[in-house]
Amino acid sequence: MVSQLAAGDDILPGTYLFDIYLNDQQIDQRELTFARREKDSAVAPCLSMEDYREYGVRLPVANEQPGCYDLVSTMGEVKMAIDAGVHRLDLYVPQTHLIARPQGAVSTKLYDQGINAGYLNYNLNGTQSRNRFNGTNAKADYYFASVNSGINLGPWRLRNDSTVDRQPEAGTQWRNIATWAETDIVSWRSRLMIGQGSTGNVIFDSFSFSGVQLASSSEMLPESLRGYAPVIRGVAASNARVEIRQNGYTVYSTQVPAGPFALNDVYPGTLSGDLQVSVIEADGTKKVFTVPYSAVPNMLRDGITDYQLNLGRYRDGRSQYQPNFIQAGVARGLSRDITPYGGVLVAQNYRAGVVGVGKNLGAWGALSLDLSLSDTDLASGDNKRGQSVRFLYSKSLNTLGTEFRLAGYRYSTAGYYDFNDAVAERDRWDSGVYRHDYLDDSQNYRGVPEWTEARQRSYYASSFNNKRQRLDLSVNQRIGDVSSLYLNISNQSYWGEVGQDRTVQAGFNSAYKNISYGLFVQDTRSNMVYGERSVNLTLSLPLGTGGRYINSSSSVSHTKRTGTTYNTGINGTLLDDSRLNYGAQVSHNAQAGSNSSVNLGYQGSKGNVDFNHRYGRQYQQTSLGMAGGLVVHEGGATLTQPLHNTLVLVEAKGAEGVGLDNQGGAAIDKSGFAVMTSAMPYRQNRVGLRTEDIGAGLEIPMPARDVVPTRGAIVRVKFDTHQGRNVLVHSKRPDGSVPPIGATVFGHDGRSNGVVGTDGEIFISGVADGDRLLVKWGSGAGDACSLVLPGNPGNMAQPTQGYDTVSLICNTVPEAPLP
């Protein structure tokens, strides 16, 4: 193999899997052919003009050339770099020769559907309670487990979410939460789901169903095209840099040529906050102007379309009445900062439609307004028709540090029912009256979790109270650099009922040096006439030194029902990687007396364990929890930390104990596998091994890779590992001279494995006894020599620095014929 190398080559002619980067951003991964264009030329990659155009390079159409295209010699400003050791090709092309693309765009060529594999994610919890009431003791044990499992077959994802719980008075119950299959339709920027899922909540209120869903996916858009932002327009006098800041932070920076420019890929950090635009010319002069910016969630950028089509049967896990339905909705971003949207929903005994528009009002904020119409056949035999107007407003007052957002729902007639109300009305109809379910908040159930069946109660009434009016208000106020004040109000009223659901929250957060403190006030009231008010004051102080996290916290809270409670506690982490966490807390209340609790948690490479014990005057409670995952693949089964939707299976044979850079506690196991439990779909994800964990005798030439998984994929990333000796060779030629500095050293497989240093020193890793190495510094006769590594003799013990030292003669080899 090495006989095919010529001067300047660091790779053999052939076809290899290469990562291709354009201006330091990966744009492709493909089988790339390397060959010589002429007999005496260097080995070069073969990319056609069409390949370069797909990468965004502007090329003339008039001089079309078939086959391999030499971009570097054609465009003098273009540079190309090849790293054969890590199979990476870098192209550096000036922006003037590139087609403009959205900021952060990822080529669909990089999308990785992953491997065929299965997984299981579990969360187990057991609680043992001992309660004392009126001189009697009561024992209650609760057990709960949630299991999320899935199988990946090509582009299809099969999924199931289930729970099982055991509780007093209800026994053991298994619940199938949802089962579904889904896949990407990349050419449509969409996803297809078959099974049990939920509808979107932008046009209609969301609800669960069984059926089919076809919907656009905003995840496939780069961040710079998601949601809404205004087009930034201006004029540059020269090749200039444009910087955009929002709320004091730089959110965008790019180069523009002289002349008018329009930037449509700005990605603001929040839904409101004016954009300060700076145009910095080539001579350093700066022009600054402000673009007002506010947005509401249902607004889109010019040219972006979102849609959703749902067909199936209503399913919420409770209702016996489950009507069939079909629902469709669409929104389109237009010029002049306008987003019209609308939808229809047709079901058994129910029809509804929505039409609306969102608009950026510039300095006046952003507004959306829509009208909904419904036609409902009630279980009582009546037919109701009504209208609903929805209003949403957002505005940021930058100079005052205020973000103001208002959302109001007003049902103008008592005849309006949303789909959830229409289903509930028929489901609750029982022999001429309506059943209303609620949660029992009686003090007699102290220590019983709210989710238990024992807390559920019902009452019956002659009317069904559909929603009438809802008002949501949110105001956030920054005060200086470290303080903030907020107010949230939510109020829901009902037709035919005086009671309302209301929540009012207000808070203040600040810090002095390293001390954090806050005040939180809340007032809640339900339409069941239950109300509660609370005031909470918190104080937090870090105590750790030397990088060790230890934090103390104290609080005072007062509620209408329980009076004043005092709390103080401490929490922190142990071990070098902070995988062990602990906490202890004590509290006192005049009614409940003193209470205390301790907790301990450990994040292991194969799962997490949590322990908690609470003790009070009237109760004692101990709980133990375990969470983790299992990935089953072609190479076996790998235990993991808790899994998320999109995973990366990392393979590195012989690298047991080497950790993952971005996954605390995870490390390669005995079988050579580890799992990165969370990855961002349709985005570049860096998968890296901790180089500090790589011991002597193990070489990993490329310890980091970038992957772009699709949603739900289990992507396999395999790292090449070479196990063997690390050797420092003192080389000499037969005549006593040393090979020239910078000469390339090739391993037995023809890949570059180092260069010659001063005095003929060569450091190589991952080699075995008897390996033949080629040292080459030219293509002429005598411009190469070879050496053979001897076995490890008994008198050559591996020193503490982690490598052997040996002196070898590098024997001259004849000129190799060119392929």
Fold and architecture overview:
- This protein has three helices and 57 strands.
- With 819 residues, it is mostly beta strands.
Short description:
The protein has 819 residues and is mainly β.
What is the strand tally?
57
CATH top level label of the domain at 2-99: Alpha Beta
Radius of gyration, in Å, reads 33 Å
State the helicity in percent bands. Answer: under 10%
CATH topology of the domain at 2-99: Ubiquitin-like (UB roll)
CATH superfamily of the domain at 2-99: PapC, N-terminal domain
Shape: globular
Total of DSSP H or I helical runs spanning 4+ residues = 3
Mean pLDDT: 84
What's the CATH architecture of the domain at 2-99? Roll
Strand content: over 45%
Structural class: mainly beta
Largest sheet: 24 strands, antiparallel, barrel
The poorly predicted ranges are 1-8, 443-447
End-to-end separation in angstroms reads 11 Å
InterPro entries: Fimb_usher, Fimbrial_membr_usher_CS, FimD_plug_dom, PapC-like_C, PapC-like_C_sf, PapC_N, PapC_N_sf
Keywords: Cell outer membrane, Fimbrium biogenesis, Membrane, Signal, Transmembrane, Transmembrane beta strand, Transport
Pfam families: PapC_C, PapC_N, Usher
Membrane topology: Multi-pass membrane protein
Supply the key terms.
five-stranded mixed sheet; 819 residues; 24-stranded antiparallel β-barrel; mainly beta; Immunoglobulin-like; 3 helices; 57 strands; Ubiquitin-like (UB roll); 56% strand
Topology:
Blueprint: E1 14-22, E2 25-36, E3 43-45, H1 49-54, H2 71-74, E4 79-83, E5 88-92, E6 111-112, E7 117-133, E8 136-153, E9 156-167, E10 171-185, E11 190-198, E12 208-216, E13 232-236, E14 240-246, E15 249-256, E16 259-263, E17 275-280, E18 286-291, E19 305-314, E20 324-332, E21 338-347, E22 350-360, E23 366-377, E24 383-397, E25 402-411, H3 419-428, E26 429-430, E27 433-439, E28 456-461, E29 467-479, E30 483-494, E31 500-512, E32 515-525, E33 531-542, E34 550-559, E35 563-574, E36 580-589, E37 593-604, E38 607-616, E39 619-633, E40 636-640, E41 647-651, E42 659-660, E43 663-667, E44 673-676, E45 685-688, E46 698-699, E47 704-709, E48 714-718, E49 722-723, E50 725-732, E51 744-746, E52 752-755, E53 761-767, E54 772-776, E55 784-788, E56 804-809, E57 811-812
Parallel strand pairs: 1-5, 6-47, 41-48, 50-56
Antiparallel strand pairs: 1-2, 2-3, 4-5, 7-8, 7-39, 8-9, 9-10, 10-11, 11-12, 12-19, 13-16, 14-15, 14-17, 17-18, 19-20, 20-21, 21-22, 22-23, 23-24, 24-25, 25-29, 26-27, 27-28, 29-30, 30-31, 31-32, 32-33, 33-34, 34-35, 35-36, 36-37, 37-38, 38-39, 39-40, 41-44, 42-43, 45-47, 46-49, 50-53, 51-52, ...
